[in-house]
Amino acid sequence: MAKQIRDPGIGEKFNARTKRLMNKDGTFNVRSKGIALKRIHPFQYLVNVSWAKFALILLLAFTTINLIYATIYFSLGSAGLKTTIDMSPISHFWQCVFFSLNTLTTVGFGNFCPSGYKANIVAGLEAMTGLLGFAFATGLLYGRFSRPSSKIGYSENALIAPYNDGSALMIRLVNLRNSIMTDVDVDITFTYEERIGNQYMRRFYQLPLERNEVNYLPLTWTLVHPIDENSPFYGKTHEELKEIDSELMINLKGHDEGFGEQVHSRTSYLMDDVIWGARYIPSFHVDDAGIVLLDFEKLSAYEKVNLDREPVLLNLV
Amino acid sequence: MAKQIRDPGIGEKFNARTKRLMNKDGTFNVRSKGIALKRIHPFQYLVNVSWAKFALILLLAFTTINLIYATIYFSLGSAGLKTTIDMSPISHFWQCVFFSLNTLTTVGFGNFCPSGYKANIVAGLEAMTGLLGFAFATGLLYGRFSRPSSKIGYSENALIAPYNDGSALMIRLVNLRNSIMTDVDVDITFTYEERIGNQYMRRFYQLPLERNEVNYLPLTWTLVHPIDENSPFYGKTHEELKEIDSELMINLKGHDEGFGEQVHSRTSYLMDDVIWGARYIPSFHVDDAGIVLLDFEKLSAYEKVNLDREPVLLNLV
Amino acid sequence: MAKQIRDPGIGEKFNARTKRLMNKDGTFNVRSKGIALKRIHPFQYLVNVSWAKFALILLLAFTTINLIYATIYFSLGSAGLKTTIDMSPISHFWQCVFFSLNTLTTVGFGNFCPSGYKANIVAGLEAMTGLLGFAFATGLLYGRFSRPSSKIGYSENALIAPYNDGSALMIRLVNLRNSIMTDVDVDITFTYEERIGNQYMRRFYQLPLERNEVNYLPLTWTLVHPIDENSPFYGKTHEELKEIDSELMINLKGHDEGFGEQVHSRTSYLMDDVIWGARYIPSFHVDDAGIVLLDFEKLSAYEKVNLDREPVLLNLV
Amino acid sequence: MAKQIRDPGIGEKFNARTKRLMNKDGTFNVRSKGIALKRIHPFQYLVNVSWAKFALILLLAFTTINLIYATIYFSLGSAGLKTTIDMSPISHFWQCVFFSLNTLTTVGFGNFCPSGYKANIVAGLEAMTGLLGFAFATGLLYGRFSRPSSKIGYSENALIAPYNDGSALMIRLVNLRNSIMTDVDVDITFTYEERIGNQYMRRFYQLPLERNEVNYLPLTWTLVHPIDENSPFYGKTHEELKEIDSELMINLKGHDEGFGEQVHSRTSYLMDDVIWGARYIPSFHVDDAGIVLLDFEKLSAYEKVNLDREPVLLNLV
Question: How many domains does chain A have?
Answer without folding.
Answer: 2
